[in-house]
Amino acid sequence: KEFFEVRDPDVAGARNAAERARKISALKQSNPTLYAEFLDAKRASECESLFLRTSGRFPLTGKGDINTYTVFAEHTRSTLSPFGHAGIIVPTGIATDATTAAFFGDLVEKASLVSLYDFENREKLFPIDSRMKFCLLTMAGGRARSSAFDLAFFLHTIDHLNDEHRHFTLTPEEIALINPNTKNCPIFRSKRDAEITKAVYRRVPVLINENLGEKGNPWGVSFLRMIDMANDSHLFRTRQQMEAEGFELQGNRFVKGEEVWLPLYEAKMFWHYDHRFGTFDGVDDRGNTHIPTPTSEEHADLKYVILPFYWVGIKEYFSRRRNENEWNLVLRNISNTTNERTGIFSLLPQCCIGHSAPLIQTTNRLTKENITLYSNVCSFIFDFIIRQKMGGTNFTYHIVKQLPVLPPSTYTSSLTNFIAPRVIELTYTAWDLEPFAQDVLKEVGEEQWNEWF
Asked: What is the predicted pLDDT for the residue at 196?
């Protein structure tokens, strides 16, 4: 794709790998010279990748999606003498990304990290995009071990290095406490933020500690990407297509006889305790990043439903869903630490869901306990912790797994009876989520339900 971005933008702009392959095949006939250049570039790239992955020189960074700065960092470290030190300038992803977790985790475990100072390029310290983040990384040789690491994040100028409130220290044990799975570096804006976060993690375990097996996942959580918006696009139908085929819109589902097509929800369509946050009703262009939010009057209408841009057959829903619930707990996987809220979670009715909103599924079939989990991930303190752990815009699984979540054993009967009715009142705001309320009612019984409400 990168090769064709300048030479043939039409090929680079293909919607997916299959379409790109077809266009490259056609290029062989229409422009053999360009096709030959492509083969040469492809061979050079594959040879370079083969060397990085199999030579043995880059055991920690020569895997996954290889970036040259990562192998540069590992090469620099491998050339150090036992008492030597090296300072390099690399993207901050060396400490925060999932693909570099093995390298940075090894730096932490062997106490080879001396300091890391993260800069945002807003002051144009380098003539590149202002959104780029880079760091000054100092590493030590095997016998020049460091007991604690000096860290600072979100710096803009060199003078910020002199501000002691921006600096904080972490020991290998504290990094392992906060990020037990990846050992990558947590991100704090200040020493105070670091102390608060460390205090939380000393009291609350992470959602999934992969080092402890099943015991490290008390909620039995797994994640599911139901519908891929690119690779599954052949399954989509627009409103015009459905109506042309004789389907009737009932609520936000299309029905014809026994055949049912479900709405395809996207992340921009929901918010905390609001499954009707955004609608494509009246929107003709999918290029809009923002879609209308229903009015207060529409929100007050218990029968009001939002409309998607696409619909997908209900058979796809049942073939991909892992349990029988007619409701789904989901999260937005794209966010930002400067947004009003960073972690966005919601309960959705039965629908197909795009990959920008992964499903959170638990082995615990008790709806009441899923409510307490939902309340935890929607809390303000939980959002505060998320802001300390996101270095970019991707709210990835490795971040979610390492967030502090109270285990099911925390929720006593009295605590659950305090939380559950409040979550239900915030969530059950329209008839399309009636199956969720019915599941709770069947589980707790009419007496408990009447006591709550």
From this structure: 95
The per-residue pLDDT for 288 is 67
CA distance 100 to 88: 16
Pair 137, 90: CB distance under 8 Å: yes
Number of helices followed by number of strands (H, E) in the chain: 17, 14
How high is the pLDDT of residue 131? 76
Query: What is 106-153 written as a DSSP string?
Result: HHHHTT-EEEEEEEEGGG-SSSS-TT-EEEEEEEE-TTS--SSEEEEE
> CA distances (Å), 223 to each of 132, 361, 409, in order?
30, 6, 22
Q: Return the number of other C-beta atoms located less than 10 Å from residue 425's C-beta.
A: 12
**Structural tokens at position 409:** 């054993």
DSSP string, 229-263: TTTTGGG-B-HHHHHHTT-EEETTEEEETTEEEEE
pLDDT of residue 179: 93
What is the average pLDDT value for the chain, to the nearest integer? 91
- Asked whether the beta carbons of 105 and 211 are under 8 A apart, the reply is no
**Residue 406: strand pairing partners:** none
